[in-house]
Write a structure and sequence with these properties.
Layout: E1 2-7, E2 18-23, E3 48-52, E4 77-84, H1 91-107, E5 112-116, H2 125-139, E6 161-166, H3 170-195, H4 203-217, E7 220-224, H5 226-232, H6 235-241, E8 249-255, E9 264-275, H7 295-310, E10 315-325, E11 337-339, E12 345-347, H8 355-366, E13 373-378, H9 382-388, E14 393-397, H10 400-413, E15 417-419, H11 424-429, E16 437-438, H12 446-454, E17 463-467, E18 473-474, E19 485-486, H13 491-502
Parallel strand pairs: 1-6, 2-4, 2-5, 5-6, 9-10, 9-13, 12-16, 13-17, 14-15
Antiparallel strand pairs: 3-4, 7-8, 8-10, 11-12, 14-17, 18-19
Length: about 500
Amino acid sequence: MEIHVKQGNVAQQADRIVVLGTWQDAPLPDSLTHVVESSDWNGAFKQALLVYVPTQTTAAPQDSSVQSTSAPFASRRVLLVGLGEKADWTPERSRQVGALIGQKVRELQQSSATLTLPTTDALGASAAARSLVEGLLMGVYRFDSFKTLPDERVPTTKLEQVTLLVDADVDGVKKAVDWAKAIAAGVNLARDLGNNPPVVATPTYLAETAQRIAQDHDMTCTIFDHDKQVELGMGGLLGVSKGAREPAKFIILEYGQPQPDRPTIVLAGKGVTFDAGGISIKPAADMDKMKMDMQGAGAVLGTMETLGRLKLPLHVVALVGATENLLGENAYKPGDILKALNGVTIEVLNTDAEGRLVLADALSYAQRYNPTAIIDLATLTGACVVALGSYAAGAMTNNPALLERLKAAADTSGERIWELPLWDEYKRQVRSDIADIKNTGGRNGGAITAGAFLSHFVGDFPWVHLDIAGVAWTEDQPKNYNPKGATGYGVRLLTELLREWSGVSL
């Protein structure tokens, strides 16, 4: 989608459709009062109303100082969008309005639109543009690669161009728009990985995606095959992959180089491309959703796509253990003991607690980079969904300062996290009688004991574990910029963390 930024008056734009955002209970422009009944409009948040106005018969002055309250509209279609109370305007509200605008324009089968950028004293032009365009681009996302039959629910016209009108600082807003486009590209890549069927999005497919990102953005990509995993002793990944249709891939995607004055951040993602539960098989109901059990990997790869576009001055390493968890004749079994890369032995009590085994090797490998921070993302436990629902990821850490950085990034990005404790009592729950630890600590505190398990593989390095099981996909669209399916959660959060860490300002 092309997004243009210029100065101008929305009433003078002869586009296919113009979008006019209004604050709650603010008066409409004089030229619209005769076509909108007062009872039909009050500007409440996300209210939308399409009105048709008489076509302008004489050319309007091109002076941008002419106010829209008096000028007739050059476009016949005017989409009114409610912004809510001005005092309540935030980046998150801006994102949701951006998504609403894109979706409404697309539903009206229009390929272009023009709108004025809503700003306040608290949310200036650049921040407002970044959030609104993020929402717009994420909101019009559709995964329709496999659709071949007509579907009356799906608009056939694509939104190809949006013009954003600003009062000033055109260059600053253009920079913010480019930033938003980079973020949306990463989010939508992560969504594509999750929405693809598991017969397509295999471990090999994830590896090929990482290689493509490396080629496009001058990164380094290394793929460890089965033999290399055996050589290194990646017993967790190898154990889970024993029943899979194809060998596991261990993916290393590296951006930048270590330098004395730059931090090294390692991002680790769970990449189980389909999780049947192994021998501890899952119930049939909703098992199809387990194609998205690799959305931790999706978030990490999507972030690297965004990072490659933004060129932040950092050293970032993405690690993904990619495998399926199936029921092949060689599948690992409850009662097996695996040895992870760092030598810790693991008693397997439940083969459906496989993500932590894959991450055990990834986190162990991360220590080789002497990282400033390690952050892992995984659709790890149903227990986290029970605890937090679909509105926040669970966060566990060994370093409160690192978690505070992530909390700040969550506030800015709109991707929420909520801290869960990692007390010693939870760590005792995963002790094994016959190995060092066991891969499940029981039903009670299940999300936290999974984090306690992972804590054995990060050494003393600052680390945060994000359980994204409740936020990685959606069926009820709690935020209208997240269409049904994979959400791409984590890309915006991690990008904001990396931006802040790099010192780059917007």
